[in-house]
């Protein structure tokens, strides 16, 4: 929730996440809890694939430069 002056689109007024889930369950049933999955899953798949591929490439590049010890957690941090 946000203040009315900053709100964009329709704002739902739930007191908590569990309260929101309960309201959706009562009003729309199981199908309501799954609404939006068809659009969210492909978007998350593409985004995650791009992020993981970029991270793997960057981490390999950092390892190749030999700036840090190969088994150090700093390699993953620098790759990120």
Automatic annotation (TrEMBL):
The keyword Zinc does not apply. It is found in: Mitochondrion inner membrane. It is a multi-pass membrane protein. SUPFAM superfamilies: Mitochondrial carrier (SSF103506). Its main location: mitochondrion. Transmembrane segments: none annotated. One of its GO terms (cellular component) is mitochondrial inner membrane. Solcar repeats lie at residues 1-61. It catalyses: a dicarboxylate(in) + sulfate(out) = a dicarboxylate(out) + sulfate(in). The keyword Mitochondrion applies. Belongs to the mitochondrial carrier (TC 2.A.29) family. Gene3D superfamilies: Mitochondrial carrier domain. PROSITE patterns: SOLCAR (PS50920). Keywords: Membrane, Mitochondrion, Mitochondrion inner membrane, Repeat, Transmembrane, Transmembrane helix, Transport. This is Solute carrier family 25 member 34. Signal peptide: none annotated. Putative antiporter that exchanges dicarboxylates and sulfur oxoanions across the inner membrane of mitochondria.
């Amino acid at each position: 929730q946000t203040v009315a002056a900053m709100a964009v689109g329709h704002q739902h007024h739930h007191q908590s996440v569990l309260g929101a889930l309960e309201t959706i369950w009562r009003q729309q049933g199981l199908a309501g809890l799954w609404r939006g999955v068809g659009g969210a899953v492909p978007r998350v798949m593409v985004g995650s694939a791009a992020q993981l591929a970029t991270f793997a490439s960057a981490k390999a590049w950092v390892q190749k430069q030999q700036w840090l010890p190969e088994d150090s957690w700093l390699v993953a941090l620098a790759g990120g």
